[in-house]
Amino acid sequence: MQADAAKRSTMPWALGWGGFLVNADSRAIAPMLPAMAAALHVSAGLAGLLVTGYTLPYGVCQLVYGPLADRMGKVRTIAIALALFSLGTLACSGVHTYTSLLILRVATGVFAAGIIPTTVALIGDRFVPAERPRAIAFFMSLCTFGQAMGIVVGGWVAQFYSYRVLFLLLGLAAIPTLLVLLRQGYQTGSAGVPSRLRDRYRALLNNPRAWRVYGLVFGEGLVFYGGFTFLGVYGVTTLHLSYWWVGLLTALYSVGGFVGSRTITQVLRRLGFRRMPLLGTALMTVGYGVVWGWRSTTALALGLLLLGYGFSYCHSTLQTLATELLPDGRATALSVFAFSLFTGSGVGPMLGGWVLERFGMLALLAAATAAMAVFGGVCAGAFWTRRGVSWGPFSQSGHGQA
Questions:
Q1: What pTM was computed for the model?
Q2: Who is most buried in 189, 248, 323, 350, counting CB within 10 A?
């Protein structure tokens, strides 16, 4: 029993480090694009395809890894995907042509897709519902920290070293997580889940609660990333900050997410499950509102902190719901969840960019504030009924009642 407890306490840190590396790898290229374009002798536009080459297969392959993990086991799937991700990233550090690097980035995106959603599904298997929100929030906070640090470290490496150094470090850094996964042991897939991929998705999509969860997370991605994507542009163009300072301020978003992950269990006990998305969206609304109404570096820092705090509460609650949609096939359920978030986070910046181009930065911040407030109202309608909690892992046990 003590050995099992030790493994479970080590797992969130190890898997969180894996999520950290995946997100750092995806974000670090953005500040390095000018240096990479020069080193590879291509235009900045072509260099930008290195980002698309990673993110596009990452999003599409979510729908494949979920059923695969339910068949062959989540730990095995994560271990194989992380090992191939590590090899692909190491290979990126050794190539010197644009075409070779683009091919490797596509392959690395395919491998990276099997890590984060499958890990959330594994957390759903290893943690009871009362402990699950905190474990998920902690894991996601490390993933978010990877995004922020990827931007910061990417800019630092671009200024003082070569992009090949970053890929080398990221590839080697995956080894500790692989060692922990080997200690966990491989488990087989879920026996109760329908064996065919088509049947698994049919079981999910015939569930009305699944549509509500996936609709909410799509809306979350659309509203949140529609504004968040352009906060760095706001810092540079409106506040006249350097890219270095913008990267450091972005790290405050991860700090807020980490604090949220450490406090979510206590807040959940006080407020109840149904109020968590409302609290999260309220914090994010205030975060956007502060940045919109108070043009200063302090306001941007406070806004990013509140956005991280609120997103941790809201997103972790939705992920906890997703882990209960298909208990015998959690990886399948989480793959659709990740795909829905990915789709929303892709559409959101398109709409945000349209507002920015036509009406300006302040109009975008105002729209993000208003849209987040509306999304909070949608969450209220989805979670709140006259009799209390209408659905969720705590609805039958009485937790979260008024």
A1: 0.72
A2: 323
